[in-house]
Amino acid sequence: MGVEGCTKCIKYVLFVFNFIFWLAGGIILGVALWLRHDSQTTNILYLQLGDKQAPNTFYVGIYILIAVGAVMMFVGFLGCYGAIQESQCLLGTFFTCLVILFACEVAAGIWGFVNKDQIAKDVKQFYDQAFQQALMAESETNNGKAVVKTFHETLDCCGPDNAIGVITPLWREDLCSKKDNLLKTVFETSNCHKKIDELFSGKLYLIGIAAIVVAVIMIFEMILSMVLCCGIRNSSVY
């Protein structure tokens, strides 16, 4: 015997929320794949300075997002099917998966908040090391100059956030992408430390918005799934 009245309405509301949840999982998966293959981040984070690899903390977060998006799509499908079939077993499994996923999202959010400054700091330190090697003409033995030029061309910047970076374009113009007017480069081109901060803060901003929207949907779904499960149990008594 199927559910009736308000419980039936909750059934279809839960189905709609799960469909939205499934779409949100697809969006998060798409955004994560975009961040993973975005030219700005890949050009920088695939660099290698001698034996030293660029920091991969950012990619750790991206792989977590890819996993979360894929799991969300599976859980969303499970919730849709469980609601339509009015299956207490599927709805109970769906609720358990939501709780685990919500806990993982909170943990990932805390990890991202704690490490958001460290990610940019690691990349800036990597850039500074390459910059110093390029200035000291060590490019014959390593790829410091190539690493620095990749930063400059990708982020449209020149020099670190210090006095050396300000005067560098005047006597090492080969390190900067703008060679037509060196004085203009000094006064109009942003330093690379600032550009790196903007790059990662912008990415984390998008991730934060997506995480908040998904968290709200998950809370509603947990409530609705339990209400529907109780309604199914009560209707089976009669």
Automatic annotation (TrEMBL):
Q: What is its main location?
A: membrane
List the GO biological process terms.
adaptive immune response; regulation of cell population proliferation
Q: Which Pfam families match?
A: Tetraspanin
Is Hydrolase a UniProt keyword of this protein? no
Q: Which keywords describe this protein according to UniProt?
A: Adaptive immunity, Cell membrane, Disulfide bond, Immunity, Lipid-binding, Membrane, Transmembrane, Transmembrane helix
Task: Name the residues that span the membrane.
Answer: 12-35, 56-84, 90-114, 204-228
Tell me where it resides.
Basolateral cell membrane; Membrane
Q: Which family does it belong to?
A: Belongs to the tetraspanin (TM4SF) family.
| Protein's UniProt name | Tetraspanin
Q: Which gene encodes it?
A: Cd81
